[in-house]
What does this fold into?
Amino acid sequence: MNKSFIQSSSLVFSVAVFLVLGISGVAQAAVQTIRAEVNGMVCAFCAQGIEKKMRSLTQTREVYVDLRHKVVAVELKEGQVLSTDTVRDLIKDAGYDVTRIEIVPETAQQIRAAVRGRK
Ligand SMILES: [Cu+2]
It folds into this structure.
């Protein structure tokens, strides 16, 4: 191997690393989901009611509600903004108690998979 080959291959490697990091960075930034833990959902109608309410928001792309694990996940459309306070108030107004709420860089599907894996 001559010197210029080593230099050019390390350059190719650097560019590849840059592209991979860059692409995954963009993909992560694009996904925003408001994940809430909610007390007071006791039956399928409670869960359905919250799901319907969250789906009716224009910012919403996908919703996942898990009755057993008390999780509500509201995935936002790309570029849309929705505050945790707004979601908290909507859930509270419907008669439920939000014990924790945060914005996470996961899709509703990923949260669903994680919650179901928990048992
Ligand atoms: Cu109910």
